[in-house]
Amino acid sequence: MSLSSVSKKTTSFSISLADVRATEELGKSLSRLLEIKDVVTLSGELGAGKTTLARAIISELGHIHEVPSPTFTLVQYYDLQPVSIWHFDLYRLNSPEELLELDLDEARYSAISLIEWPDRMGDFTPEERLEIKLSFDQDEQKRHAIITGYGNWATRIREVQSAL
Length: 164
What we know:
The protein has 164 residues and is an alpha/beta fold.
């Protein structure tokens, strides 16, 4: 793991994830740092572990039932205490304007937002966010995560790195 400053408002580090369990552990560690109004974007190709990571976060924050992928519903809402979670999967969006129908603004100001396929957001991508890009290594046995903090996350990212 190495921390590098990308610009004034971003800071990044990378981590190797040996298996699915390591991806789940990353999610559990992140969940302890999340607060109301936090946005976490999850990107990567199909099967890279975006939903696995989101499920681990949601479960660690207190959801005791199955955590379905929101691929077809586009959003799942979890009314948890002390903070609710909105889990978005934007893969099937045709345009960023469709976000207006998903109550993304309400989620961003009243809950934790986990957003898969954030590249579909266009200009609606929040400036304040924790971005996690997942990828496979060359033999597709392990995963790799690049974790970047934007805005206030640029300073909070040291908390993320310390939690791992």
